[in-house]
Amino acid sequence: PTAASFGDPAHLLIGFVPIAIILLFNAFARGFMKSIAILLGILISSFIAGALGFVSLKPVSEAAWFHAPQLFFFGVPRFDMSAMITMILVSLTTMIESTGVFFALSDITGRQLTTNDLERGYRAEGIAAILGGLFNTFPYSTFSENVGVLKMSGVKSRQPVYYAAFLLLLLGLSPKVGALATVIPEPVLGGAMIVMFGMVGVQGVQILHKVDFSNNANLLSASVSIGLGLGITMYPQLFQHMPTEFQIILGNGIVVTSLSAVLLNLLFNHRWAN
């Protein structure tokens, strides 16, 4: 929002293009073409933006074709207590977010989520974070927008994920491919993410639809939790004067919503049970 070009009519127009393309493919296409509507929306919009002069291929031309990853490029691991505590808090934050993603996927696929499924999901994230550290990348976590992709494509099999993971491993050896991904205009990505974030939000509404809101305990728990989460999302600087450790937890709307919902649910259920 602080960028000089923010709100520029040309950027707004480019941001609308992927939304329109995704909607058109979902309305009129069938089969495979419909399932890759989001990918087509990003690709076609990027070509249009490039034709209008909004894309620079200089990073692609300067990047090498092949580069083998180097373990511990930034140095061998060191154990620092403050850093460890911070990372634990961050991991708890991502775990709470991932739990919501797991439940959304359970609702979409129609598969009942078990404790074992949650444990496997958390374990996979932990292993991915360790591997990310080894290869000098960011710690990995679930990408909530993929819930929207799964919902729109209708593909619920894990098989494509295996193929995609193998393909990404190969493409990760080419800096030129990585540079190509960085030249996608931000308005194009923003437009596509509106659709994907919207799908995630609607999936959450569908899950809430199953809750009995005639029960005041459920109504108050959901109302207060969602209100707190939205407020923090709109004003993330609310806790800027608090210690960093608290900002990590309280500055994330999803985490605050989840924690408050759990605590209020325990409070009201305990009271109603008594």
From TrEMBL:
What is the membrane topology here? Multi-pass membrane protein
What are the subcellular locations of this protein?
Cell membrane
Transferase recorded as keyword: no
Question: What GO terms fall under cellular component here?
Answer: plasma membrane
Keywords annotated in UniProt = Cell membrane, Membrane, Transmembrane, Transmembrane helix, Transport
Superkingdom assignment: Bacteria
Q: Name one GO molecular function term.
A: xanthine transmembrane transporter activity
Q: What's a Pfam family in this record?
A: Xan_ur_permease
PANTHER family assigned: PURINE PERMEASE C1399.01C-RELATED, URIC ACID TRANSPORTER UACT
Family to which this protein belongs? Belongs to the nucleobase:cation symporter-2 (NCS2) (TC 2.A.40) family.
Official protein name in the record: Xanthine/uracil permease
